[in-house]
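WARN retry 2 of 3 for item q-0093 after timeout on previous attempt; input resubmitted unchanged.
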Amino acid sequence: MGEDAESPKINHTFLRDYVTEADVISTVEFNQTGDLLATGDKGGRVVIFQRETEPKGESEEVGETGDSGEYNVYSTFQSHEPDFDYLKSLEIEEKINKIRWLPQQNAAHFLLSTNDKTIKLWKVSERDKRPEGYNLKDEEGRLKDISTITSLQVPVLKPTDLMVEVRPRRVFSNGHTYHVNSISVNSDGETYLSADDLRINMWHLGITDRSFNIVDIKPANMEDLTEVITAAEFHPHHCHLFVYSSSKGTLRLCDMRASALCDKHTKLFEEPEDPGSRSFFSEIISSVSDVKFSHSGRYLLTRDYLTAKVWDLNMDKGPVETYQVHEYLRSKLCSLYENDCIFDKFECVWNSSDSVIMTGAYNSFFRMFDRETGRGVTLEAWRESSKPRAVLRTRRVYTGGKRRRGDVGVDSLDFTKKILHMAWHPSENIIAIAATNNLYIFQDRVNPDHTQ
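OK item q-0093 returned
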């Protein structure tokens, strides 16, 4: 994949003309089939999009572009409300930090959503029939006077308009003292983990009033605190393995078979620091903001402030691949520290075959890297190219040398337009990009088995 590679095309775009803080998208997640896409925002809302089973266009046009159905709004519900911790006199935001889908077991769908403190399990189901002919209730649902009932009838189901019902099934609360930054569903389908700055808990999906603490890095004296947990995830196939990342740039692989409390890791993944390049910002920019297992379970993908790295589970001495996302910002770290951008937490994702990785940047840019060639491409999610089936143009940040038409200078980058959250379809080349309060869905314009 290079700068001259063919770009994906826009499948669908959900844009809002005005921006309020509550509308800013804070998480994006496909379900296991890719037919549903959930987004959470800072206002505590969850919006679920469903993929149409049949494309709207004629076969010739659709066949040429590889389009196979758009995503439309399926359901919207309020997941979390603002709360207040009276013991600590702290406001608890309603912002949705993470959404994770559970493997589908029946016609209904289940998802977990969390804010800083409380995790909720939601059931999403469809209803196209309603019961009629109750014996003890009238047509409006009111109880009848039993003395007036002279005969009994068998209730029947009558067809009705399709309704999507979203109901809370479990509320997992009081499990975290600090802000929840990660949730991950285990491959056993029965448990999940939740991580905050200092602890990781494991929950059973059927038990809400207790969890089991599997990692605790809180020191006896908080003045001795040197690092915090930034992200955690279960292995996609082995239910006893999980990994968590830290603000020091390290990864710890833990095996729950070795010990119930996984304070002692099985493997430590760490890249040796070059003493010659150390600066005031070194520790800040080395903090890992996201970690993802590959679909195969062989590799780990991490994102720090300037780079994305791929690690082999069998090689803990350092990453096997390092990709420069926006190296041109190294000279701007001082100003980025002053405006707090240096603390932005970028996410990273794999494509379905683990051959391409994707992560975000500033100026509404996002980056894709082909692991086979090591080459990257910069694309932009912006309103001007948001027409359906428009082809995305590759972009380039000018850092010196010959300047091409359309290049963007480093000093012209808009740091308020940041791509932090994204998701990749589990089996196709469809990606969802959250840009502030806008959701972009892009689809590969050619062979769906090969990402451009």
